[in-house]
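stuck on this chain:
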Amino acid sequence: MKKLIVVVIAAVALSGCAKTFKSNISEVTPVTGISSICIEDNIRVEIPLGTWIKIAANDNGYSIDREDCEAVVTYTALRYFDFHAPLAEARVTVKANGVVKGSLYFQQPANMFTGDKYMTPSIKILTPMLNELFEH
C-alpha cells in the first residue's frame, strides 16, 4: 500500500512537467506603418524561413533593402527531432526604432496525435501566415 501511495504521489508531481498545450497556437499581428524592410539573417535556422519572408514581403509590395529600411525583421524557427523534423515553433518580429510593427508566432505540440499540422511541411504552415503578416 505504501508503494502505491508513493507511485501515485510521484505521478502527480511529475505530471506538471509535461507540456500542457494540446493544439496549435497561431498568432499574427499584421505589419503597419512601413513600406521597406531589412531582414536579419539567422544562420541557426535550418529551414529557409529568411527566403520565405523575402518572398512574402516582396509579393505584398514591401521593398527589401540591406541598408536604408524602415524596419528590421528578425526570425527564429525550431524543429522537433523526429523522422521528418516537423516545425515546433516559429517567430517573426518586425521592429522599427525598437517598436514592434508586426509579429508572427506559431507553436505546435510535440505529438503527431494532438498537433493537427505535425505532418505538414513547414512552408505550407508558414507561407499563409507570412502573407497575412505582410498584407497591406
